[in-house]
Amino acid sequence: MKTAGQLAQARGDQVWSIGPGEALSEALKLMSEKSVEALLVLENGKMVGIVSTRDHTANCVRGRCAKVTPVDSVMSKDVPCVGADKPLEQCLALMSERRARHLPVIDEKGRVVGVISFKDVANAMLSEREFIIEQLENYIIGWPG
User: Fold this and answer.
1) What is the three-state SS of the chain?
2) What is the CATH number of the domain that holds 132?
């Protein structure tokens, strides 16, 4: 069974971040450049939130301009995190329960080692299940009968 840390490592993504006082437009520019949908918000090296493209959409609905809106006014502050050793099933349950589309993965020293998405977790779990089914089918077909 794959863990959150293994999935984060397999993605090979760098953890992208922005400061809380930066303009939302700068966050959107960085997300676009790096082809990601969310950035960690770090202050003095400590995670204080996460900002996503969804936060931008909500900001627009309120009629505010991304050029003058600071990241910390739209970011999610109570960010669920998961230990690198947690199985994907627990990640999916946490993401569903907290309605989180992105989940920072923390190592044993409390450092963020990656960010996994709901889609990443679901795809990895489907792949694992397909592999198991294929192995069982091969076992059954090869069974002396």
Assistant:
1) CCEHHHHHHHHCCCCCEECCCCEHHHHHHHHHHHCCCEEEEEECCEEEEEEEHHHHHHHHHCCCCCCCCEHHHCCECCCCCEECCCEHHHHHHHHHHHCCCEEEEECCCCCEEEEEEHHHHHHHHHHHHHHHHHHHHHHHHCCCC
2) 3.10.580.10
